[in-house]
Input
Amino acid sequence: MHPLFIILIVAAALSALCLFVFAPGAGGKDGKKAFYGRNIAHRGLYERDQSIPENSLPAFSRAAERGYGVELDVQLSKDGRVVVFHDDTLLRACGVDRRADELTYGQLCVLSLFGTGERIPLFMEVLSVLSGRVPVVVELKNGKRNAELCEKTLAILEGYEGEYCVESFSPFIVGWFRKRAPHIMRGQLAQLPADYGDAVSKPAALLLGVCFFNFIARPHFIAHRYGKATLPVKLARRLGAMSFTWTPHDESEEKNSDAVIFEYYLPTVKFK
Output
């Protein structure tokens, strides 16, 4: 067999493999319209000094009043309630050195957020405050009870009258929605491998940073940390994945993004 022919076969095989591994999901066109060119308030429109705390009802209300989309984080309490809270532990936000999923909702809801009068809200409470006015990006936090979190989050979202999408750092959570709720726009959260720090092992950080598990999740969008991205992430975008960017502190990422999850400044509601 001619060497050139062998090279062409190998090149074609590698190209097919790359397409299989990194290609985004098909569809999601209707969902993309709601988020395209949109500025989305990261954890609500909160104050940098946390006088209006992140992931609090006032922060979400402020964002909706200004017309911004909203990004928020959901996880489970010990007794299976879906709460809106970002960190794995309560130490930074509430001064309690416990995991959020180690306490019942009754124990969580009496804790103060950053020393204010605000409390950790239920997901249903946040959606009630938003009242369908703005699109919502729901990040599902990776944990020990992912299937339960996915099921309960989906059940709550189905009652929301506005636009929404889901995202996660876990491709297996995103893949759950691909299988169980393919009509919902889904996104893969990612960042450069070095930015994962000690959160995961170095091999896992490499695989997650290049979105190697797109063949499981088939995301409609890649939500990537602002700045540089790996070549496979760029390839997924070329192949049709929407580009969400988090969390710049000025408008500089708008020119390279389809949607921006911002914090610490007040951009226009839409930039495209």
The chain has a mean pLDDT of 93. The radius of gyration is 19 Å.
